[in-house]
Amino acid sequence: MKMIFGKNLAIYRKKANLTKQDLANRLKVHWNTVHRWEKGELFPRPELLEEIAKILNVEISDLLKAPEPEPFPGFDNIMCQPARERYYSVWQLAAQHAGIQVALGAMGDPLFRDRIPKLETEEEVIEAYKEALSYWKKVTKRLDEELRKRGIRVESEEEMITVPEEDLKSLDKGSDK
């Protein structure tokens, strides 16, 4: 019960954009107490449990029930981010799940900031993840085909291959096939 409560507390606290210190201040407890609740080492007194639920704008039962499984690994972490940052994180995470390490620097560029959609709801995040994962899987498949055609073999996942930008553009165009 302590572990379930602790995980839920951390999730709802982050969704409320509160630090451990913020929550501790509002509850008039030490921040380490909040930390120990989240680690499952302690459990709050009943009157504090009610106050926690009120501060986080959830029901007590939400804090005590086993959380639903994530739609994809890393989902809860993405949902704790501001809506404006989620799109970048979804694409980065989907690339990793497709087996690609990419630098998506342009998305953080202020020039592109206004063009990046805000992912406000869980459904929007899940849909964006599916789209990104599909895209990266196509790019991965195309990259594998291209490397095989050129006679380049990758022996392990630890090996890094640098693909010139012009080649990436041609791979990107071919990923819709």
Automatic annotation (TrEMBL):
UniProt keywords, alphabetically: DNA-binding
DNA-binding recorded as keyword: yes
Protein name: Helix-turn-helix domain protein
InterPro entries recorded: Cro/C1-type_HTH, Lambda_DNA-bd_dom_sf
UniProt GO MF annotations: DNA binding
HTH cro/C1-type domain boundaries: 9-63
